[in-house]
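Researcher: Quick sanity check before group meeting.
Model: Go ahead. Protein one:
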Amino acid sequence: MIGQGWDAVLVLPVDESGALDDPLVRELTQDTGAGRLLSTNLLSVLVTDDGQALIGAVTPEYLQSLAGS
């Protein structure tokens, strides 16, 4: 867990079994160049190519900045 309160982001390891190549996942997410991003008004989820999932009630840009650090 990174941060506290509304800025908290959960970081989890992800099984790299090719789930990101699923057509439904591709339809529901955006390519960020370093992973896949799902963003709603309430929640953002970034699954990185290096096997992390970052999940939080934060902006997609915030997740991407955390993933790059």
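Researcher: Fine. The other one?
Model: Protein two, sequence then structure:
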Amino acid sequence: MIEFAPDIPRWRQVAQVLRRRIADGMYMPRSRVPSVVQLTAEFGVAAATAQKALRALRAEGLTYTEPGLGSFVTQMPPVSQFGLVDAHGSGNSPADPSLRPVGSG
């Protein structure tokens, strides 16, 4: 279990841990992320908290759900509101024009 910050909703903190694991390659594209039951056991949170964390990742385009099978990491990293997300989740490098979003001269 992790030590939760009291001023941040737990679902956000669980989602952040999962985001970091995806960015670090712990969960590779098309691999299954932990289930609600697994998240409740690992983080000591309620099922509703784990479900909300997984919904947040899906809404961000980091995961997709296969009914009856679970949640999986998407094939390609999504474009963040600030630029492209690289394999490490650190954003795009202004020095490398090939990483700039289309139309950002």
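Researcher: One line on it for the slide.
Model: The chain has a mean pLDDT of 81.
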